């Protein structure tokens, strides 16, 4: 089983799909990494040799992924909250940040509706 950046890659998947299990690597970046590391992207992860895995590790190290990227994103959000930018205020209030409507959607950010007591006539 291949292990890159402390992430176990799924054995039964193709290399370009399996690399997407690492936070910060999508399909396009995975294809680029495979091409640069001279690894066939349609090959299954269980069929990779140790040399190919080492080349993939070396190539993935060039990009900001996993813990570094997560830390970078969190620091960016924290900075926006500290300087009280519009996005930071939305993060503080737990509302959608990127301009989505809130009157009938946004349940993933706001949570389900709160029950209001004594709302009879």
Short summary of the structure?
By secondary structure, this protein is mainly alpha-helical.
Any descriptors?
6 helices
Protein model, in words:
The protein is mostly helical and 121 residues long. The protein has helices spanning 15-18, 27-36, 50-60, 66-82, 86-93, 107-110; strands at 3-4, 7-8. It folds into two domains: 3-60, Helicase, Ruva Protein, domain 3 (Orthogonal Bundle); 66-109, 30s ribosomal protein s13, domain 2. The protein is elongated, with a radius of gyration of 21 Å.
- Bin the helical content: 40-55%
Strand content: under 5%
Q: Helix count?
A: 6
Mind telling me the CATH class of the largest domain? Mainly Alpha
Overall average pLDDT: 91
Largest sheet: 2 strands, antiparallel
Query: Which architecture of the largest domain would the CATH scheme give at its second level?
Result: Orthogonal Bundle
Cα(first) to Cα(last) distance is 65 Å
CATH topology of the largest domain: Helicase, Ruva Protein, domain 3
Major β-sheet strand ordering: 1-2
Q: What string, H for helix and E for strand, traces the elements in order?
A: EEHHHHHH
The beta-strand count equals 2
Quickly give the structural class: mainly alpha
Low-confidence stretches: none
- Give the domain tally: 2
